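STRUCTURE:
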């Protein structure tokens, strides 16, 4: 009452004061217009969130998701499992508290940690497949004797975001025929015994801003379509970086791929219409290996200190453009190189019994054994033009050279530079 009267001047008649007080009390007691009945405090159509901390097991929380879907919140904590967690609803978000939510798979018989699938599994009818599942913000680990980390089977519009997936005996994340629009972004995928991210029969795939470290292979995309892989960091893999097989219409751009023991990128088994562009490919066993690829472009990549075959076009490949790339060693100017004497390998381009290849606008500098190596005389329709070759030997003259080909020795060393 005092709050209602404190701003009323003393000269105002008592009748006016009574009206002010009555109106003020009504404003406090009555609900806002359009608020509905006072007793109904819930939003129509809303479903309650599922707090996994209120259930006896994580699986019980997942089983509580209604057919319409919902959100399951995983609390912070360490949770050990010995059999797979199974999520079998559409329109579900499974979200944790970052790496503070740690699920550890202690299974020793090769079983996965988390499976997202319809109850009918691989036999699910097309009309019954699950849609719109999001996995986010938790840590999932295993052992050498456990299976895959995440397995998703026939899930459309799957979104995997901000997971840490490490140390599993199989793949880190395995998407099996997640056909429509899978998105994998901002994850840390490390130390898995097989493939970090294994894409089988997927379509319109976005893989962006992930970090891959010390898996066997970083990523494999098989029997797929339209992979868009951008802005990922791939380091220290025990075998290969990115393997693409029987997949077309795909782009690898803006990735950093370093120190894979095998090749950084492999295309095999009827790949066509793919582009590898603007990547840093550094210090791998080999660079880009086109084993069975046609109609592909290799452009604007930096290919430095590759042990063998910075780019290899094999006998199963053709109709390739190789343009605007930099093939180099660790030269840092004035005759100096950055790497130690036992780590100076830097390879160039290898063409092996291939045909219909354009090589233009590239720089080859101090790469060995040759800037361009033609392993035999069987390569046909090789157009080599407008390239710069510095401090190299090369077989390019055995191809059809056109335009300007600049050949020059290395710049003289600076005698004042310390080795």
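SEQUENCE:
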């Amino acid at each position: 009452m005092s709050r209602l009267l404190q701003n009323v001047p003393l000269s105002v008649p008592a009748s006016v004061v009574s009206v002010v007080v009555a109106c003020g009390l009504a404003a406090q007691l009555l609900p806002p217009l359009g608020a509905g009945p006072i007793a109904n405090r819930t939003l129509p159509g809303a479903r309650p969130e599922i707090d996994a901390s209120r259930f006896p097991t994580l699986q019980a929380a997942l089983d509580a998701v209604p057919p319409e879907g919902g959100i399951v919140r995983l609390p912070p904590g360490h949770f050990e499992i010995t059999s797979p967690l199974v999520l079998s609803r559409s329109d579900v978000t499974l979200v944790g508290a970052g790496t503070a939510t740690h699920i550890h798979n202690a299974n020793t018989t090769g079983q996965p940690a988390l499976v997202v699938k319809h109850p009918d599994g691989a036999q699910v009818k097309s009309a019954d497949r699950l849609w719109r599942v999001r996995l986010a913000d938790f840590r999932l680990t295993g052992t050498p004797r456990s299976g895959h980390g995440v397995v998703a089977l026939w899930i459309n519009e799957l979104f995997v975001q901000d997971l840490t997936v490490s140390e599993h005996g199989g793949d880190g994340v395995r998407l099996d025929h997640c056909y429509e629009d899978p998105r994998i972004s901002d994850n840390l995928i490390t130390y898995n015994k097989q493939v970090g991210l294994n894409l089988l029969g997927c379509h319109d795939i976005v893989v962006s801003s992930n970090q891959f470290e010390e898996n066997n292979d970083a990523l494999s995309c098989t029997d797929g379509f339209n992979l868009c892989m951008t802005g990922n960091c791939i380091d220290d893999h025990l075998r290969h970086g990115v393997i693409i097989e029987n997949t077309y219409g795909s782009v690898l751009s803006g990735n950093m791929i370093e120190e894979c023991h095998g090749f950084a990128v492999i295309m095999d088994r009827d790949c066509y219409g793919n582009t590898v562009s603007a990547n840093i490919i550094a210090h791998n066993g080999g660079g880009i290996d086109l084993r069975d690829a046609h109609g592909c472009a290799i452009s604007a990549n930096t290919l430095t200190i590759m042990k063998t075959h910075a780019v290899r076009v094999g006998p199963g490949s053709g109709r390739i453009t190789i343009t605007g790339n930099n093939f180099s060693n660790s030269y840092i100017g004035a005759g100096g190189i950055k790497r130690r004497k036992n780590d100076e390998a830097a390879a160039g381009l290898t063409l092996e019994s291939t045909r219909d290849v354009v090589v233009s606008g590239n720089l080859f500098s101090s790469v060995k054994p040759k800037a361009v190596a033609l392993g035999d005389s069987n390569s046909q329709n090789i157009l080599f033009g407008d390239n710069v070759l510095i401090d190299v030997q090369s077989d390019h003259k055995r191809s059809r050279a056109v335009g300007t080909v600049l050949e020059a020795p290395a710049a003289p060393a600076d005698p004042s530079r310390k080795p």
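REMARK: DSSP finds three helices and 45 strands in the chain.
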